[in-house]
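WARN retry 2 of 3 for item q-0093 after timeout on previous attempt; input resubmitted unchanged.
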Amino acid sequence: MKKINIFFLLPQFVLGGAGKSISTLCKNLNKNKFKIYIICLNKCYYADELKEYCDYIYEIKSKKTFFAQKKITKILEKKKKEKSILVSNLFYCNALTALFQKKNKLLKFIFVERTPLQELSIYFGLVDFFKKNFIKFILKIVYKKSDLIIANSSKTAKDLVFFSKIKTKGIYPPSFLNKKYKNKTKNKLFNLLTIGRLSKEKGYNILIDIISDINFKNFKLTIIGNGPEKENLKKLVIKKGLKKKILFLGEKKNVNQYFKNCDLFINSSLFEGFPNVVVEALSFGVPVICSDSHGGIGEILKNGKYGAICKNKKSFKYKIESFFKKPQLLQKKALLGQKDLKRFSAKENKNAYEKIFLDMKFSNKLD
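OK item q-0093 returned
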């Protein structure tokens, strides 16, 4: 059987959930059946570790995905006489792929959405409002060009079917770490942890506000990650008088030691497709409190069976304060969740994608 070319297109291939998920998939795909290519803008964060698994990594020098379209076309044309699948990722990239890339009978399109559809209805200013509504309008039209849409949760998949009327499948990202670690909360000081990009949609400003209103003082919060909101968040911490309580550590590739020393993991995102870090926290037996971020959080925590899900700011504050008073409840939930994580394994993820790739119907002739 001749190998199928798989092109993974992710504009910003940086340290984070999307890059990590694609990298893990690339490492596990059957090399006897697939040739694997990465297409991204500028530097691929995972390039060094992916070299032995990928046939080539295309790092296009461009600041915007829009201006990279001609180069993407040239890359795809090199394999135009071979069976190929372009796996495009994220709303705006998928919209541009559908608009500018031409399909043929040997080239199939799969659009992967890693954030919930509600992302396009949460705005940070007037420009963001027009941009997201334009993307939503375009997607409504061009989604029909895809052969399949993949979402990283069943809920998001259902939302996308309702929105697009196109065949959609939910596949969980490979997030399970298979640890045998049991977290133990210390009595003297509670170590709180959150991990993610320091951007508006992660809701760190809301979390800082909540922390500032809590009367209990015997804790510290560690924030791991970098992003455009870093300086604003640091100023907010100083304004709230929390400089001794909240620590910014920047990016950390290996966060295992922080999970081991953590008593409570918090995810405060306004929208999140599938927060891999929540699965990682549970794999260490760490209790979690999360915002209801529209995507897969309900599936990870089994609608509150394995952790706390908060609908609003008031609920968030109450859940954190309740944990400080009686941590045992969330600890028990976390240990239950730790036993139910194989559904998020790399093997499950790989098997699901390979089946889709191998079941794709190609013609023997070009258009």
